[in-house]
Amino acid sequence: MLKFPNDFFWGAAASAPQTEGYSLSKGKSPSTWDQWFKLSPEKFYQNQGPTDTSNTYELYGEDIQRMAEMGMNSYRTSISWSRLLPDGRSVNTEAVSFYRAYFNNLNANGVEPIINLFHFDMPWWLMEKGGWETRESVEAFTFYAKTCFELFGDIVKYWTTFNEPIVHIECGYLYGFHYPAIQNFKKAVQVGYHTLIAHTSAVEAFRKSKREGKIGIILNISPSYARSEAENDQKAKENADLLNIKSFLDPCVWGEISQDLKILLKENNLLPKTQSNDIHLISQNTVDFIGLNYYQPRRVKAPEEYNTPAKMPEDFYAPYDWPGKKMNVYRGWEIYPKALYDVAIMIKEEYKNIPWFVSENGIGVSNEDRFMDENKVIQDDYRIEFIQDHLKELHKGIKDGSNCFGYHAWTFVDCWSWLNGYRNRYGFYRVDLENNYARSLKKSGLWYKELIKNNGF
Ligand code: BGP
Question: Which residues are listed as membrane-spanning (predicted)?
Fold first, then answer.
């Protein structure tokens, strides 16, 4: 039996915009997702928009009972910025009551709330002014963060600032999956830089608040593996890790932006605009812990030519179709559990063995009802196998000294996912879109319950 450390955080993760519902009511102003759906609903899978989420606004009480029943001792979700502060300054009291009741309910059921501030959901009023492209966004985010610490700091002890900042940067400014869906590498870097400063400024506000508790950031860490040992391919790997991993991990943990990254950006005329106090701000506001999202590795090779100045990340590293890869055929992502061991050791050896937890890991499955049996239970053995294989690697990493304190699956109840709507299901509970979002347990939910009970498998 593989046993995990005592008091290990077992749980699941989700986000406000993907679960709450009531995205245009109860005092909430539109986020960029609400507005984009209004403008271009055809971009969204089966026209499923952000109003179509799993209605935790009303159903959180019964969901928390289910979490407690499963034995979960922690749960991560986020606050919706545009629900709490519809115009950026004035507090929506209905939202305060909702979040307080929600977080109190989690605490009362022994489920530690881990609360994230930004999960891709920029308020529309701020996006209209340029969003993360502008320095004004830093000030707006800091005000929002401070407000959250004041309003909920007595009942929330684990905070995170951002979920996967690299994703809103690349999806919004390089690859077209998030609004404003433009392609401009220089802007992408500036957006990334403002996100980093907004993060550090929120950490500073948290420290100044003298609140009891810890603060961290959630990063998608897909380690890169090069096609070969050849210098050219190794350079591609280094570039990919610099841009996608070290860009946030170094300043958040070490308080310094990587010199190699600065050189790379400078050589390619991609350096962002900065302010003189930023270096100090970054150096003084490192995090207490890291949340690490892992789904699949990144396979890279050298591009045909290393073009300077680079116009896209692909000029720094090209995707490589590794012949030995095992695929999640239901979603199209590679399955490679060993990467979780590799990142556990990377954090131990290169990032001062900072406390960290797996904040997202899971398997998305399209058209999952095909696996429903005659009793209407989804027989998701592939999910059990996926989580188990990843946990084996995680366990090995912990045994070898990595300071991991928890594992959160994505996700508890199937949820809406941006342009993908409900295309890929991830939950331990199925959500029935035809029947008022009713939940039903999948086979993997029973398995997870047993795992938690045994603190291992
Ligand atoms: C992560 C995000 C989640 C969720 C997940 C699954 O990057 O943090 O919000 O969307 O990916 O993604 P998908 O539903 O596209 O398979």
Answer: none
Cα distance between the two ends of the chain: 5
- Bond into 337 cis (ω within 30): no
- Cα angle 137, 139, 140 (rounded to 5 degrees) comes to 60
- In this predicted model, what pLDDT tens digit does every residue of 248-302 receive, in sequence order? 999 999 999 999 999 999 999 999 999 999 999 999 999 999 999 999 999 999 9
Count other C-beta atoms under 10 Å from residue 373's C-beta. 9
Pairing of strands 214-220, 289-293: parallel
Structural domains in the chain (count): 1
- With respect to residue 2, please indicate whether it lies within any of the assigned structural domains: no
Nearest to 225 by CA among 141, 325, 374, 361: 325
| pTM tops 0.95 | yes
Residue 360 annotated in active site: yes
Catalytic residue among 20, 133, 164, 368: 164
> Domain of 144: which CATH number?
3.20.20.80
Atom 13 of ligand 1: nearest residue by CA position = 417
User: Residue ranges of the alpha helices (H) in 210-294?
Assistant: 231-241, 247-249, 259-267, 278-284
Active site residue 164: yes
Does residue 4 sit within a domain? no
- The predicted complex's ipTM stands at 0.97
